[in-house]
């Protein structure tokens, strides 16, 4: 009786591991796809749909497994461990080397889903002659749902920031093969092909363990091939993949594969971002920076000695800590993040603006481009209404707004959204060699006007004379009759993806 009970418990624990591992593979694929392809909502939605559909296919075909059920279950566990375990590694390595990356992505998701879909019905068939049907169903689904809950909690809080996607994938592949080995040895007398399955499980486990040990090297290799530059720092935070590269004297920051700045010309971008807004406020004292965790915009603001305080709100502490603690990067931003006049808040800017705040004279918004809905919400009329809570009539806002040459509809959609929210706007652009023509929009409750403030010394690119030219937009950088970007339509994200797709 005790042996029977321990067998039931072992098989039910297998259900728990299967559910946990299966959801982890799904989350790894969705996260990796959002890193590499952008638009997290679309990637997660399609991957979840494909995975669940594939599980249904697997459940359908489980009816054809009528003999040697325990052996087939062990075989499936080994296959799930192998395919799920190596999936992240394969996808990272193949991304820049296959023409149809999405085919590879959905093939792996589909295979994993079919195999996981086969496992639960097989387990239920194994248990049906050993347990009461009602108890079996309730216990199987209880362990299944608990495993799914655990996976959804530990994935963003522990696994991604501590292990990264590749190690997480290998680790849970090892868990699958460990279940196969444990069941194999526990029920060895009931298992057909026991010797073959033992060798197979051990070989696959060894392969996954080697992958786990060397995953950092493989990740470096994959990123080096993708960026074609020396990787000097890489880390997966809870929010994004952070990579720093070096080519000769040029340092570049990439977030989820998207270039954020090049040290050779970032001054052109940041001078154009900060100084026009400072010129258009009569006496800027309190400054709010949303985004800009690299401290480069803050460096430009701190050129003004009369600034009393700067509040920098950036979602990812991994970025602000990197640009605070690394001597080379701190030298790049003139140690702006160490300034006693600056306070860093690591939180979501959308949520932060919901709480009552003292008004700011100048607000500098340096968010990533709206390549997905999670960032697109920061360009909506809802966000700009929240922004108005921290402004006075004299306050000046400036927003980086992607390239008006590559994506003119996206650029003017942001302008249209600001105007619809009640702002008066002043669009402008400048040339940044790493990016090409880049656009900004200055906005204020009243029409922005130059207040005649003295610009700080030491500027390399920006001047009052150059700003007059930056406000001119030729016909190929203009667009009209554009929608307002709202939370419930995210029109900007669709425009952005369509326009940039033609240039990538």
General description of the model:
The mean pLDDT is 89. The strands form 2 sheets. A 7-stranded mixed beta sheet has the order 7-6-5-8-9-11-10, with helices on both faces. Strands 1-2-3-4 form a 4-stranded antiparallel beta sheet. It has 504 residues and is of the alpha/beta class. α10 (296-301) links the parallel β5 (286-291) and β6 (309-313). The longest helix is centred in the first third of the chain and has 36 residues, at 2-37. The protein is 55% helix and 15% strand. The protein contains 18 helices and 11 strands. The radius of gyration is 27 Å and the shape is elongated. It has helices at 2-37, 40-61, 69-94, 101-127, 133-162, 164-186, 194-213, 215-227, 266-279, 296-301, 317-325, 327-332, 349-352, 373-376, 381-387, 408-421, 464-470, 491-501, and strands spanning 230-236, 241-247, 250-255, 258-262, 286-291, 309-313, 342-345, 360-366, 391-400, 424-432, 436-444.
């Amino acid at each position: 009786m005790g042996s029977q009970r321990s067998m039931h418990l072992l098989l039910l624990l297998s259900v728990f591991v299967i559910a946990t591992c299966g959801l982890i593979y799904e989350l790894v694929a969705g996260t990796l796809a959002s890193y590499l392809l952008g638009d997290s909502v679309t990637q997660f939605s399609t991957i979840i749909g494909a995975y669940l559909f594939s599980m249904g296919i697997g459940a359908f075909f489980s009816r054809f497994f009528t003999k040697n059920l325990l052996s087939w279950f062990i075989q499936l566990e080994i296959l799930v461990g192998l395919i799920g375990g190596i999936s992240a590694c394969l996808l990272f390595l193949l991304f820049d080397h296959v023409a149809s990356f999405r085919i590879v992505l959905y093939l792996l998701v589909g295979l994993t889903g079919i195999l996981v879909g086969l496992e639960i019905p097989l387990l239920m068939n194994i248990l049906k002659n050993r347990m009461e049907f009602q108890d079996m169903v309730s216990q199987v689904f209880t362990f299944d749902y608990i495993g799914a809950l655990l996976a959804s909690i530990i994935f963003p809080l522990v696994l991604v920031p501590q292990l990264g996607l590749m190690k997480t994938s290998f680790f849970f592949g090892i868990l699958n093969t460990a279940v196969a080995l444990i069941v194999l040895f526990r029920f060895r007398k009931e298992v057909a092909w026991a010797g073959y399955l033992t060798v197979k499980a051990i070989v696959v486990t060894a392969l996954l363990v080697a992958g786990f040990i060397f995953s950092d090297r493989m990740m470096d290799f994959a990123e080096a091939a993708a960026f074609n530059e020396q990787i000097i720092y890489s880390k997966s935070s809870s929010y994004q993949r952070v990579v720093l590269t070096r080519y000769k004297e040029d340092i570049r920051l990439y977030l989820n594969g998207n270039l954020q700045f090049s040290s050779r010309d970032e001054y052109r971008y940041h001078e154009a971002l900060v100084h026009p807004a400072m010129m258009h406020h009569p006496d800027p004292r309190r400054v709010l920076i949303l985004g800009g965790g690299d401290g480069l915009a803050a460096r430009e603001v701190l050129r003004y000695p009369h600034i009393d305080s700067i509040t920098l709100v950036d979602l990812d502490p991994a970025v602000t800590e990197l640009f605070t603690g690394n001597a080379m990067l701190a030298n790049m931003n003139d140690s702006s993040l160490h300034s006693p006049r600056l306070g860093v808040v690591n939180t979501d800017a959308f949520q932060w603006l919901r709480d009552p705040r003292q008004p700011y004279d100048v607000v500098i918004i340096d968010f990533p481009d709206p390549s997905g809905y999670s960032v697109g919400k920061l360009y909506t009329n809802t966000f700009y209404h929240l922004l108005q809570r921290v402004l006075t009539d004299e306050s000046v806002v400036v927003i980086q707004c992607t390239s008006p040459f590559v994506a003119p509809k996206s650029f003017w959609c942001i302008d249209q959204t600001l105007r619809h929210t009640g702002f008066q706007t002043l669009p402008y652009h400048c040339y940044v060699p790493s990016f090409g023509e880049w656009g900004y929009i200055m906005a204020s409750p009243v029409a922005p006007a130059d207040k005649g403030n003295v610009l700080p010394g030491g500027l390399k690119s920006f001047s009052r004379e150059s700003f007059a030219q930056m406000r001119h937009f030729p016909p190929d950088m203009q667009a009209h009759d554009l929608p307002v970007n709202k939370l419930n339509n995210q029109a900007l994200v669709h425009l952005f993806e369509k326009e940039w797709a033609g240039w990538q």
